[in-house]
Amino acid sequence: MNRKELVDALSAKTDSTKADAERNIAALIEIITATLKKGDSISLVGFGSFEVRKRAARTGRNPKTGAELKIKASKVPAFKAGATLKAAVNGGKK
Q: Partners of 43 in the beta sheet?
């Protein structure tokens, strides 16, 4: 499902206009991005949680030349699915 399909589905599910659905999705993405940028996490009980994880500096290899490269430490966004979402995806109920 892409963003347009998500907007259509949200619009149909909430009986709102597509413009309202697009604004709501955009606002949700902005809120999640801003929260993660601050280093905080977001927990939606039953659905999952968004958090920032730290990735340590490491040595990698250029696959073309085989030369070693230094990869800087970084922060990466991560999502961990909740038990209810996992159960729904696996066909069970929680």
A: 49
Helix locations, the chain, DSSP H: 3-14, 18-37, 83-89
Q: 15: which DSSP letter?
A: T
Q: Residue 21 is which amino acid?
A: A
CB 52 within 8 A of CB 39: yes
What kind and span of H or E run contains 55?
strand 48-55
Tell me if 93 sits within 8 A of 83, measured CB to CB: no
> Residues with Cβ < 8 Å from 67, sequence gap 6 or more?
61
- C-alpha distances out from residue 6 to 13, 64, 89, 91, Å: 10, 39, 18, 22
At residue 94 the predicted structure's pLDDT band, cuts being 50, 70 and 90, is low
CA angle 82/6/46 to nearest 5° reads 15
Q: pTM for the full model? A: 0.79
